[in-house]
Specification:
The protein is an alpha/beta fold. It has a single domain, classed as Rossmann fold (3-Layer(aba) Sandwich). It is built from 10 helices and 12 strands. A hairpin with a 2-residue loop joins strand 4 and strand 5. Helix 6 packs parallel to helix 7. It binds iron/sulfur cluster. The site of iron/sulfur cluster (SF4) has 13 residues, from loops.
């Protein structure tokens, strides 16, 4: 990993809302984090907690409207992506920011052959001949483990299996050597064997200087892949820690509950513990701490005010009143 002090990506106080029939709902509330070159940062939490909206706001892939950025900055390589003209942003997407979606058909056109799509991606950003781009496409399909790559270049996406499509999308996301790779649940739709292969592939293919934001609800994937973990709950970040530390010593009660419900850590028990209750809907968040209704340590004050997300010890941030003393506060 590079020691460069300058983050590759710095998200500052980002808030995003969506217009609904019942009014505007805040899906991402004051989220701040950074990613350094070469660092793999996991963003974890249950469905509906705001992970994907956070991640997809970075390359501005959230449709606006109905979405709306309420505030904040997304600084990438020193430029604010949220303030950047769309034409400049298009140049960055693909070339400098690669995106891998859960469902490959989100990124692949069903109407065009894989090869055509790869050639277009390359030629949109680089002045190379179609032939050279085609050859590079063949090489990349081979690199991501697709057999008979020259033949597969002629295939339509629907002619490939789910695992092969995911590999093709990873090749397309990485073919231009992006500095930042955003992967949104890249293995959730795949069976367990293919999942492991795709994770291995992403680890191998990623350049040493490429930063990665990996969205997942699976702590096992975090364990396998990440240097650092951000835990999100009901639109807010609640914990930020080095991956190895979070597994041995989670600070937030929600992180603790996520880890207890992880199969590999619960071997030998008859039933896996689950987190009681559900993530509250955005239009019915409890007063005070968003986790209060499910927290085994809830106190009166948790229902009166929201804990701030702040550094509780070097390299770790947490939003919980239980951790206030560690931050040196009363
Ligand atoms: Fe639980 Fe209170 Fe901490 Fe929220 S602030 S996680 S309710 S102890």
């Amino acid at each position: 990993m590079s020691d460069s002090a300058e983050p590759l990506l710095a998200v500052r106080d980002l808030s995003v809302a969506f217009a609904t029939d019942g009014g505007e709902l805040v899906a991402v509330d004051g989220v701040s984090f950074s990613i350094r070159r070469g660092e793999v940062v996991g963003l974890v939490g249950e469905s509906g907690c705001g992970k994907s909206v956070t991640a997809m706001t970075i390359p501005r892939l959230v449709p606006m409207p109905p979405g709306r950025v309420l505030g904040g900055q997304v600084e990438f390589l020193g430029r604010d992506l949220l303030a950047m003209p769309v034409a400049d942003l298009r140049q960055l997407r693909g070339a400098e920011i690669g995106v891998v979606f859960q469902e490959p058909m989100t990124a692949l056109s069903p109407l065009h052959r894989i090869g055509q799509q790869m050639v277009e991606t390359i030629r949109l950003h680089e002045k190379v001949s179609s032939r050279a781009a085609w050859e590079r496409g063949v090489q990349w399909l081979a690199k991501v483990g697709i057999p008979d790559p020259a033949e597969r270049m002629l295939a339509y996406p629907f002619e490939l299996s789910g695992g092969m499509r995911q590999r093709a999308m990873i090749a397309m996301a990485m073919i231009l050597g992006p500095s930042l790779l955003i992967a949104d649940e890249p293995t959730t739709a795949l069976d367990v064997t293919i999942q492991a292969q795709v994770l291995d592939l992403m680890r191998e293919m990623r350049g040493a200087e490429t930063g990665m934001l990996l969205i997942t609800h699976d702590m096992g994937v975090i364990w396998e892949m990440c240097d650092r973990v951000l835990v999100m709950y009901a639109s807010r970040l609640v914990e930020d820690a080095p991956a190895r530390e979070i597994f041995s010593r989670p600070l937030h009660p929600y992180t603790e509950a996520l880890l207890k419900s992880m199969p590999v850590l619960s071997l030998g028990k008859e039933r896996l513990p689950t987190i009681p209750g559900q993530v509250p809907p955005l239009d019915a968040l409890p007063p005070g701490c968003n986790f209060a209704d499910r927290c085994p340590y809830v106190m009166d004050r948790c229902r009166a005010a929201s804990p701030r997300f702040r550094e509780t010890e070097p390299g770790r941030r947490c939003a919980c009143f239980l951790r206030e003393n560690q931050a040196g506060e009363a």
